[in-house]
């Protein structure tokens, strides 16, 4: 009999970390992935207009990009509208970046766009039409397998150099990656952040304006949100206290919620356009409202993927083409308007703008300037009572001076719970496998993935092997040689 | 906030019922479905050779069949080898059948073979190649939907007429049906019984003979078994105390466990032939051994179904043809050798034989003649620690005088647990829906079924509607008119 | 086998109610117990200075007191400093009081002071020196037994007349009483409120001033709080973001935390004086900080009660004398400064003052004017992960427009958890017993109470019987005649 | 935030070990504590009459006693009635004893009788009148603190020398000690064994004879048993299938169950006499039947201890005097009839007798000769659904060839569950403290013990310190110097 201690019996847990106290006049921010071309310039501008002062260290494997952002950061301080005082510096080691940091931002892209093309195209050969293919399903799992080992390194470095820092993870797949940070360093104070729920609140504000004639914007809408990243659900929504449920119940029966689309309807639209038809159908079925873009939802409610390209289009979803991926590094860059070089050289006129990001709001709350509530990804310590303990779940959190604490969000109707728990099982299986780089154990998670379960046994193995072959150079932390799954697959052995 | 009491906080539960004490010299057995052409004659012969005496009441909607079995039962008492003393009578009401009964056997087939043909053929139109289509998946769910209401009636009648009786349910889908009995009458002492695990022990005895040169038969093999009916798993197996795991670990790597089959290989085989290739593949993957026929396993580990007829055949599984179903009522009758009429008329010579059924063994144990251990289906009170409470699970049980008590079987590796928990969610959703005949709620269970999740949204709804249309006359307890799912489906509205 | 459904498997729960939307310009408040001489005048003054307008209905078994408060309420509108517009009315039925109410305040005292004297004095005969004797232990249990039936009536009336109203319960024992409201009407939106944790934050602000030289008041101090009412604990505390733990760890080792008291030291002090010596000792022992007055804590950490009067005094606790109780209705009235009659008659000069109550702050937040965080008592839906589900626990809650939602507070070190779970078992046993008025079942809760476990078997029964005899007229909802415990007790049978 | 993995999410567990297969013709038994004067000679005689053959290695810190038992063991083989073939040998190291063993018996007494005297007498000074003082309460905890470190060594040696052996622990406190074995070596196949439940079945057989006129002995009585060692409960009992509950319900109302005793009544009785008055009172109160001697029960249902010596006597319990302890090593030796020396020398006539021990029955079952059901102590993997996971609980187990598996026993009425969970919290706290020898952490377990909670704070600390002072030399694995509890106690600092 093997008996291992259960948490509830052996440890008192608190629902948040004991993070660094943030001094609004002297914040040290370490930015891993600080060479980013879109997110970093946005942050720099947000900070310049904030009531906070301090220092930002930019670290990137592309050191030159970090240096350019540092130049830009220091330059922005002198531009019109910049009221804060921030110093920027490009760093070359994790130690130099992290030592003494109060806040760590992690937003990286480890492997080249090429891998994303594989994540989209190879599964497609097997009839798996992921719309994004970056957070669950074969593409999401392989992205996780490439990314997790690197994040274990970050977590270990944080434990060594700034164990109490507040860590903001923006890297996808947020649930896998945030979980890996906690798995490596259980004492970390990390939050996984994502825009999808903000988008839902934005949309709900629109309905409040249109249907209730209210003067409403995103911040007027409050929701009770729960689930896992990209498969979050809302079961209460209010605009300035007014219950929006009756509005939703009307709309779901209307034509608005019964639209069908064809490729032609979507041809000119951005892949990010969200037609909410998947959302309405799920709401109609289960009486809770999904709170993520349709392009993400279909990868978790996999029956929407079973009609191929045409089936996706019918529900208003336009698949991220791999050609798109080949051109752009991350979805966030799709509408890229920043051109740091042109601004610095004066080639392009610069005007200080504010992004919609919540980072500065969160930082202000941590520094004690406000009480802020927003959705974050954190290990489950009861905030979603019927999902697995310790899995990284997404709910609202209360953020105050030195404190981030999830808000109790309750549970789910059984069918929705069943879907989410299934996805968590995939995630947890891969996380556990990643401890030793056990590829066959990761394949068990792959095999029970809800997208992959449409493949027959041999095909699932072959798909797995082909992805390994295509992305082998980015899987160096995994034990390929010891894998019997690969050994059984001609796709690998003959490669 | 809606708060309902949880069991653990409000009720002391015991792991078995407080059943009737069974007097070996005077057992009253009520047999619902007692007109059976195969199982009843077998039982009659088993009882005739047992050390038990008593009375059997045969109840059947086909009263004549029950009468014929009663004649046969009384006639058998006078045949050579019959040592016990049993009286048989055909009854016409549940009241007359159940009043004062110590033991109730339920083994019925409510609806005609035609419905089974639909269960197999309509899903096949949608690419769902169930091998049996009778316990999970679209066919299994519809069989459950037709059967559950009737079993609620049986449970209510048992509560009224013989509340402490021991109830043996042999009707499929065993997990749905046994659960319905408990859902209707929580105090019932019901066991769900099935042969599949016995088959695994039989097979393991063969391996002990062949690989270890032991003198072994089924009763020499003990296993630790757990799961749900038809998706049960073994993680320890011994023959006379000798650990069989090393044998299995050798075999799974051998040619024996790497056979591929074609239709031609299977053409002459019975649909019940079990080639164990699905079993070996699952064992290879998850390190626990499935303990049900391959034809059942593929319906729960649904990736084996994704290659259509050919894919099933490749793994050695021959699909139950609907033509077969049209001819035979139940699988058990496939090898039918009984011909009661011919025996009674003397046309065919009669020789008393013993079946392999465990019923008499269990009865003897309940009567205090022995301690008996066998696999049974019971509500989960902890015997499978990581499956849902109260779901009907299958494990070994200890059976002694007046007592049936599940044996603690531990838990599962996460991926296997994930699959099983998912199936339980389907079952529990349908059971809950059946309380009020809420068809849309049942559709939620249908939609999350692991076979059906290969369909796109519209197809799942259409398949559901077509099955309703085809089997409407056997679904009279369900609220078809109030169903918005049906209202949305042209397949129904135009029918 | 008796199987009842568990919540987690059958119901989706949300962590708060779907309460009425509160319009700040038109709030209807129903006040049960509205004849109060202290709390009502305070509330009237707080409302007069708030940005809210509306109507208050005062209901009381002493109708005249309610009428006087109504006169006072209407009169206050015209006094200097009153900026809001409120109408007051004394009502005579629950129907008239509750119909259409947005908010219900419940703060009552059912039975006369005499019963409190019994609660203190009779247990004292058995060596049980409760300091308050009003929330746990023999006195607390009997107070609960007298109060619960009445609150079941209130809950039923709320379900009928204003099912979505926000219900504020101020009546002790808060955990028992709030639980009874939910037990009777699971859909109620009730909060249990209490001052103790506010007192702790007040004290922590003092330490921040004294030890850290900060400019600090109660509202600057944030804590992570959890437990049950009057036995709440803090495991994180900050003042304006600054971690107070190091301060506490210093103080606990200092002389400040090692004071001993005698009766003489306490003679002149109010019974409400809190010397924090019990608090320090518990902190020293378990590394988490209790957050309730020492006079309450000793009744839950019962070893502090084992030295009688002297033992209490040594720890700085002054017992509430029963003579005190006989004079005053409720503890809150001890420092009574209100004299409505004198104000109305002009005998005493009136000056509008503000109380420290959080009621108006909560109301403002519910009306969407603010985001407010304070400690409240709510059924456990995961906010304290290792306490019993559904028990009423105390943690912080996030309060926003139309929404009250507990904040995840984590769990406990095992020894503290053990104490709390034990008290919850007493509470839940009595609540369950109260459903049918089963006195013997209530005695089981009494017997396992941690104060009473110091009595031998016969004495526990006798104490129970004596309390029944003394308070019989207020226990009319309990089945005294059917009680075998009473039948066994000479104290009852001879009474 | 600190997150540790929970068992249910990360590990598949099985409910028993994968123990050594036992060959009935060649069993190697390692007996730690094999110098025992009573239990060893009994075992030797039982083995001599069994159908098993093999070898026994006797290991004892008193090597001479082991040698004498070895001589006796080899001598017995030649006596009349001895049919089996066993070789005995006294060993001098754990390595020599354990290497290759199939079965390990552990039954030791580490520290001299003097410590037991302290365990009884020092608490008595504080009004704690333990009847046995050896399994819970101050005496039990200190006995555990002295014993656990040694058993960690045994567990480590077993892991090294015979990792798959079946380990039988007979040493008290059985729950603490068996838990320590698993805590040190989670893969151990250890059972904790005890006679108390056998005594209950013996008593129930007597009632079956007396009240039902049945021909009954212990083995005819089956019970559903659950709880922790010495605080086990029965909620179903049958004799040859006949429900004994009606008999118990009659008896509990009779004079038989309402006896009162005085010292004079008990003066001549053995301390082991069991008058069942505590048992009846608990049954009367909670409707489940305790299944341990009254002298043990009172230490867990501590209200029976609150009347001092007289109070114990009134309930028919005679306290184990410390004078008794000073003379005898273990309770089991009270009726000692063995005199190995006299037998060997021929001074006393020897007649082979059989003990009532279950050891040989269990061994036969493990060797595949039988299916055996008896009560054993094992980590909780669901067999008692509402007690803490992994705590060592006592239920029936099914024992077959190579297999010991707990039987699902269900849960408890809330008040009984509350008492047991409280005791488990004490046990688990001490076990956890013992990992690092953290004395202050152990004191937390001491402080929440249900016997000790009758002491005031200072007295609890003083009692703890006095016990440490008295038994210091047997506590060498604990960190006395680092203990702040001791540093605060004059009883220690001045000693």
Automatic annotation (TrEMBL), chains A, B, C, D:
Pfam families referenced in this protein's UniProt entry, alphabetically: Glyco_hydro_4, Glyco_hydro_4C
This protein's name: Glycoside hydrolase family 4
Keywords noted in UniProt: Carbohydrate metabolism, Glycosidase, Hydrolase, Manganese, Metal-binding, NAD
Biased composition (Low complexity): 1-16
Gene Ontology molecular function, alphabetical: hydrolase activity
Span list, region Disordered: 1-22
InterPro entries: GH4_Enzyme_sf (IPR053715), Glyco_hydro_4 (IPR001088), Glyco_hydro_4_C (IPR022616), Lactate_DH/Glyco_Ohase_4_C (IPR015955), NAD(P)-bd_dom_sf (IPR036291)
Alphabetized SUPFAM superfamilies for the sequence: LDH C-terminal domain-like, NAD(P)-binding Rossmann-fold domains
Cofactor(s) the protein needs: Mn(2+); NAD(+)
Keyword Ubl conjugation recorded: no
Sequence similarity: Belongs to the glycosyl hydrolase 4 family.
């Amino acid at each position: 009999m093997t008996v291992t201690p259960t948490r509830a019996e052996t440890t008192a847990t608190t629902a948040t970390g004991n993070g660094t106290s943030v001094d609004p006049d002297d914040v040290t921010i370490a930015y891993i992935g600080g060479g980013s071309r879109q997110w970093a310039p946005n942050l720099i501008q947000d900070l310049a207009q904030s009531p906070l002062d301090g220092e930002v260290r930019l670290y990137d494997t592309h050191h030159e990009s970090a240096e350019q952002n540092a130049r830009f950061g220091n330059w922005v301080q002198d531009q019109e509208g910049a009221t804060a005082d921030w110093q920027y510096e490009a760093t070359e080691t994790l130690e130099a970046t992290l030592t003494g940091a109060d806040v760590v931002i992690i937003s990286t892209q480890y492997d080249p766009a090429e891998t994303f093309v594989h994540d989209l195209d190879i599964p497609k050969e097997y009839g798996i039409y992921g719309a994004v293919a970056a957070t669950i399903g074969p593409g999401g799992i392989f992205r996780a397998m490439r990314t997790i080992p690197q994040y274990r390194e970050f977590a270990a470095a944080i434990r060594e150099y700034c164990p109490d820092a507040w860590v903001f993870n923006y890297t996808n797949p947020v649930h896998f990656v945030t979980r890996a940070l906690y798995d490596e360093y259980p004492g970390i104070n990390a939050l996984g952040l994502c825009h999808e729920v903000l988008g839902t609140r934005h949309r709900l504000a629109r309905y409040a304006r249109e249907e209730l004639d209210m003067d409403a914007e995103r911040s007027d809408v409050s929701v009770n949100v729960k689930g896992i990243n990209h498969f979050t659900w809302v079961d209460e929504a209010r605009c300035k206290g007014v219950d929006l449920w009756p509005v939703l119940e009307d709309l779901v029966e209307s034509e608005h919620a019964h639209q069908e689309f064809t490729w032609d309807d979507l041809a000119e639209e951005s892949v990010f356009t969200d037609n909410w038809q998947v959302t309405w159908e799920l709401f109609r079925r289960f009486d809770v409202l999904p709170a993520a873009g349709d392009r993400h939802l279909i990868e978790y409610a996999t029956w929407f993927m079973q009609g191929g390209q045409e089936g996706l289009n019918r529900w208003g979803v336009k698949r991220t083409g791999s050609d798109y991926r080949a051109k752009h590094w991350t979805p966030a860059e799709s509408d890229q308007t920043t051109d740091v070089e042109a601004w610095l050289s004066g080639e392009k006129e610069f005007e200080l703008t504010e992004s919609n990001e919540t980072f500065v709001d969160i930082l202000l709350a941590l520094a004690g300037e406000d009480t802020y509530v927003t959705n974050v990804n954190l290990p489950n310590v009861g905030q979603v009572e019927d999902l697995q303990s310790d899995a990284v779940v997404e709910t609202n959190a209360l953020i105050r001076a030195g404190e981030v604490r999830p808000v109790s969000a309750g549970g789910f109707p059984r069918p929705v719970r069943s879907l989410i728990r299934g996805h968590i099982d995939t995630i947890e299986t891969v996380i556990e496998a990643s401890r030793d780089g056990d590829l066959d154990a990761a394949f068990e998670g792959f095999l029970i993935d809800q997208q992959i379960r449409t493949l027959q046994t041999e095909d699932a193995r072959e798909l797995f092997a082909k992805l390994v072959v295509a992305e082998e150079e980015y899987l160096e932390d995994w034990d390929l040689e010891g894998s019997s799954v690969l050994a059984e697959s001609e796709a690998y052995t003959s490669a």
